[in-house]
Amino acid sequence: MSPSSQLVKMVKFNNGQQYPILGLGTWQTTPDIQGTDQTEMYEAIKSAINIGYRHFDCAAYYNNEKFVGMAINEKIKEGVIKREEIFITDKLWNNKHNPEEVVDTLKDSLKLLCLDYIDLYLIHWPMSTTETPVARDSQNRFIESIYSYLDTWKAMERCVQLGLTKSIGISNFNMKQVKDILGIATIIPVVNQVENHPYLTQNKLKEFCETNGILLTAYGPLGSPYRPYKRTKSTKGILLDDPMVKKLAAKYKKTNAQILIRFQIQRGVLVIPKSSHPVRQKENFNVWDFEISTEDMDSLESLNQNLRYVKIEPAQHMKDYPFNEEL
Ligand SMILES: NC(=O)C1=CN([C@@H]2O[C@H](COP(=O)(O)OP(=O)(O)OC[C@H]3O[C@@H](n4cnc5c(N)ncnc54)[C@H](OP(=O)(O)O)[C@@H]3O)[C@@H](O)[C@H]2O)C=CC1
Ligand SMILES: O=C1CO[C@H](CO)[C@@H](O)[C@@H]1O
């Protein structure tokens, strides 16, 4: 284990599994265009491992499992890491909610990753869509499928029983949907991965999940700065440039990104900033040598404005779309 990776704080899931609180996001650089230059991700994973990252947030939808797997297996072969030191999260996409297909879908992901098991498997969204990943109707809306996330959850549990994944969880589930899962689960989700940053703190959902033994993972922790097309005139603009974030960065002699990442670590929220560039990966990883005061944490919390950068407009008509009700 490299000295830098030993710095990473581990959290304990409700099943006893220990997981690094900080990981690397792997969603692509270019907004919403699948299949962009994925060799970038191969290089990104290798440099992240050299820096000390051990937790990688992946998804079938990201279309890059093969490159993530190649990089990880290369580093295992080189003797830099052992499989058991790496924590892979992967996600079941919306078109694979049919309970009959879930186990085989995870097996397909494992083949691409060239791994025998993953560490955490999530239902990516509560909505279920038809066969192709983003099939749309004449109004450009996703086409809804018939499957219930409750049945899908039962199939996720089978994945644990078969040893294909150590843990299972959910992503983008609102409070009612988490309650639904808790009502039928034999295996409780370990995390709910949701958008989270000072403009969207989701404290009610956080408290509810934590009371039920479920941790939050923060996606878009830097405010997904490459998603300007999602921003409107009414928003405050780019989170990384927020005056309060800048002020605290100057105070603690850290960068704006480091303040946003440390904010989540101190709230006990797993955090998965994405960067393909070694210099920024290093910056985002170097968050262990300072502590934000309670007062400054409160100032960051006070920036909340329930602002979502990830809304998925073509899904807003669907019955299980999570953001139509207040969380
Ligand atoms: N469950 C879900 O539905 C979702 C999950 N996710 C997951 O969460 C991860 C993180 O979210 P994401 O949307 O990528 O957004 P982030 O908030 O992590 O922002 C990533 C962007 O910020 C840039 N960046 C990274 N570090 C810095 C830095 N130190 N200073 C300035 N800019 C920086 C990156 O560019 P560069 O690469 O050039 O450094 C990239 O463009 C995803 O990669 C994915 O794994 C994301 C969305 C939805
Ligand atoms: O994980 C994800 C990455 O971002 C996409 C939107 O741009 C989301 O649809 C997806 O859930």
UniProtKB/TrEMBL annotation:
<dbReference type="Pfam" id="PF00248">
    <property type="entry name" value="Aldo_ket_red"/>
</dbReference>
<dbReference type="InterPro" id="IPR020471">
    <property type="entry name" value="AKR"/>
</dbReference>
<dbReference type="InterPro" id="IPR036812">
    <property type="entry name" value="NAD(P)_OxRdtase_dom_sf"/>
</dbReference>
<comment type="similarity">
    <text>Belongs to the aldo/keto reductase family.</text>
</comment>
<feature type="binding site">
    <location>
        <position position="124"/>
    </location>
    <ligand>
        <name>substrate</name>
    </ligand>
</feature>
<dbReference type="InterPro" id="IPR023210">
    <property type="entry name" value="NADP_OxRdtase_dom"/>
</dbReference>
<dbReference type="GO" id="GO:0016491">
    <property type="term" value="F:oxidoreductase activity"/>
</dbReference>
<feature type="domain" description="NADP-dependent oxidoreductase">
    <location>
        <begin position="22"/>
        <end position="304"/>
    </location>
</feature>
<keyword id="KW-0560">Oxidoreductase</keyword>
<feature type="site" description="Lowers pKa of active site Tyr">
    <location>
        <position position="91"/>
    </location>
</feature>
<dbReference type="InterPro" id="IPR018170">
    <property type="entry name" value="Aldo/ket_reductase_CS"/>
</dbReference>
<feature type="active site" description="Proton donor">
    <location>
        <position position="62"/>
    </location>
</feature>
<keyword id="KW-0521">NADP</keyword>
<protein>
    <submittedName>
        <fullName>Aldose reductase-like isoform X1</fullName>
    </submittedName>
</protein>
